[in-house]
Design a protein that fits this description.
The chain is α/β, with parallel strands linked by helices and 359 residues long. The chain folds into 2 domains: 93 residues, Winged helix-like DNA-binding domain superfamily/Winged helix DNA-binding domain (Arc Repressor Mutant, subunit A); 202 residues, 3-Layer(aba) Sandwich (Rossmann fold), CATH 3.40.50.150. 52% of the residues lie in helices and 15% in strands. The protein contains 15 helices and 9 strands. The strands form 2 sheets. It has a 7-stranded mixed β-sheet, sandwiched between helices. A two-stranded antiparallel sheet has the order 1-2. The longest helix has 30 residues.
């Protein structure tokens, strides 16, 4: 038997050095992700953004935390490039770009929620490993609860930046319908971030958010009540293949069709309940049409998400696992099989592809 040692006997030092450099970077990124989540939860970024420059003792006092832990947290965050350090004063601060990304949840550039999402997935490592061995799946609700809030906070900034400003206008005639008054279904809505954004932008329309995860719907209902949107924004527990209602002018699937085990059945049901001139909006993660087109930072993130959460849910719930990196051709085939005759790619962002399907 050929040993591994024999296969690796000849090492290119330059290649090895570059590889180890990437590994060390990944070590730092993996460990630092937990510290980002901790800093986010404890309000360390907000305290620094609102009151900096601060020393570690001053930040600990402002955030009611222990200075001894804050001390190295600050060093880690400065080494990560998430905050700034002034060696002359020994104080830390945040530049406007860092505040937007790490401290301001209302900013479309906020990214800290993504760390919460991915750190939660690491807690499901043992279950995912077993999936590899058995081929079994794992439903959305079986994951660590941090996934649910992290997902909302990860996607909300992109929806804030694009949904009403770019995505709705990219659908022929849809903005005018929503402004006049239309009926909309947001399928797989989770905590309802996308539904709320649309409801606030189009007060003459009625919106229904459906999700089969009861805890997420409960959270969505609470947020809708706090926003004063109950009258025209209704959330209900329902699956993608049997949600109620009819004559919807718009049926939207935000970053979720690829998670469904029966995407054909989901769109077939949409075909049954959509208005004759209605539109299905599919917002899907950015992915290439070939394997190698995904060899980039975005493809790296989404391929990991596919293994850890999207594909397991599809495997657990139906016959077809599209996965996060579903090609345009695969999505088109699903829409066509479901009975839609028109399908087009309406626009792209760095992180998403926007598709339109019509009867």
């Amino acid at each position: 038997m050929t040993t591994i040692a024999a296969k690796t006997a000849v090492i290119d030092e330059a290649k090895m050095g570059a590889l180890i450099g990437r590994v060390v970077g990944d070590f730092g990124a993996t460990a630092s992700a937990a510290l980002v989540v901790i800093g986010d939860r404890l309000g360390l970024y907000k305290a620094l953004a609102n009151n900096g420059p601060l020393t570690s003792a001053e930040l600990a006092e402002r955030s009611d935390t222990a200075e001894r832990y804050v001390r190295e947290w600050l060093i880690n965050q400065a080494a990560s490039g998430y905050i700034m350090y002034d060696p002359q004063t020994g104080k830390y601060s945040m530049e406007p770009e860092q505040i937007a990304a790490m401290a301001d949840e209302s900013n479309p550039l906020f990214v800290a929620g993504g760390f919460e999402l991915f750190v939660s997935l690491l807690k499901d490592e043992d279950h995912i490993e077993e999936n590899f061995r058995t081929g079994a799946g794992m439903t959305w609700g079986e994951h660590h609860p941090g996934l649910f809030q992290g997902t909302e906070r990860f996607f909300r900034p992109g929806y804030l930046a694009n949904l009403t400003a770019n995505w709705i206008p990219a659908l022929d005639g849809m903005q005018a319908k929503l402004e006049a008054g239309a009926t909309v279904a947001d399928v797989g809505c989770g905590h309802g971030a996308s539904t709320q954004i649309m409801a606030k932008a189009f007060p003459n329309s009625r919106f229904f958010g459906f999700d089969n995860h009861a805890a997420s719907i409960q959270r969505a209902q609470q947020e809708a009540a706090e926003a004063g949107l109950q009258g025209r924004l209704i959330f209900d527990v329902a699956g993608a293949t049997d949600f109620p209602g009819s004559d919807y002018e718009l049926i939207a699937y935000f970053d979720c069709l690829h998670d469904m085990g029966d995407p054909v059945g989901a769109l077939r049901h949409a075909r049954e309940v959509i208005a004759p001139d209605g539109v299905v909006l599919l917002v899907e993660p950015m992915a290439g049409n070939t394997v190698e087109e995904n060899f980039n930072p975005v493809g790296r993130v989404y391929s990991a998400a596919s293994v850890l959460v999207c594909t397991p849910n599809a495997v657990a719930t139906g016959p077809l696992a599209l996965g996060t990196l579903a090609t345009e051709a695969a999505l088109r085939n699903v829409a066509t099989e479901a009975g839609f005759t028109r399908f087009r790619r309406a626009m792209d962002t760095p992180f998403n592809r926007l598709f339109e399907a019509r009867p």
